[in-house]
């Protein structure tokens, strides 16, 4: 029996459209149509959610991705084909064993026939002597042979008796030659059948090798695709979360601007400011309102697109739940780069390709009369496979180095944003005191409050991007190296 995915980090999580090109949509649940005569029709039912966590988004997305489903079906089909080919291999191998046993039996039978009747040279010589005797009898004018043999009254005639003996010997020799020829022909036929089955086994062997390669690469591609989909879902999820937080900040700014516009109206009515100054305040208010309306529309479209991408029903406004990411710590590379590369699915695929090329080379070398083209191609395939491994090693090493360089850089960005948030909170504490003492205007106090919200937004954005990097690092432990 014989048996890179590319996903990039978003450069900045802010309001705007988020592409779902890397994800395909599919129904979460498919139910047969009820009370319908056409059983082939189906109803697609999507899950309705009022709120969406990151974990649920990944679960829905992984269960709904068409590309992932296609790989699952492809893998199952390949395994069925492998089982069928493996069963055929066993059957052919059993038949080949039986034919080889039959061939040995025929060889032994032929040897026994030769031992019993003498070798072919002696029999041929004996045959010639008998023919000479028959011709001699005829030259002595003995009665017609056929008449003598057929006439029972001449049974006592010595000549007739001798002739009968000679004819019987001739008949025996003829029958032996037929028997010997029949056994030799059977041997030739069995030899051809053995050769044919041997060729079939070699073909099935090559087919099983190719199926093994396809199963390995498909299985590995599925694992890599899952990790890439998870990263893409997380990236889009955090993008929506940042859009919502940005929108909340804009609305807080709108409240401040509304209050400032109201104050400007009072001052304008009292003649304390000019009409131009009042109009400037109203224009600023209108601009913020327009920006908010545009941002709300964009966020609604993005949430609808994301719902379609992960296979859930889009409610008018489902809530994006902020995840608990915990304390941010600096990620360290726990395993040597060489080990990460060697154990990666990328490299497993490349080594499998090399093994198949080497097996094919051995097959060509074992042929009775391989052509120069066959030998050259087999050698080239090995060199190409080795070159691919070398190239992949460089690519993966660069990807790992770049990944941990990004980790350090983003970790610093998180800590810097954390400091700025701390400073903003300290400032608002001082501002609150000055405002309570009447030493600071409400406008200045509210501006300080907005500064804290902006610092929180920047800090959250840095944390979310660091989480995406952490997800890529975690994938290393699963044997997946996302190269971008």
From TrEMBL:
SUPFAM superfamilies: Outer membrane efflux proteins (OEP). Gene3D superfamilies: Outer membrane efflux proteins (OEP). GO terms for molecular function: efflux transmembrane transporter activity; porin activity. This is TolC family protein. Residues 82-143, 240-305, 375-402 form a coiled coil. Residues 1-32 form the signal peptide. Its main location: membrane. Keywords: Cell outer membrane, Coiled coil, Membrane, Signal, Transmembrane, Transmembrane beta strand. GO terms for cellular component: cell outer membrane; efflux pump complex. It is found in: Cell outer membrane. It comes from the Bacteria. InterPro entries: TolC-like.
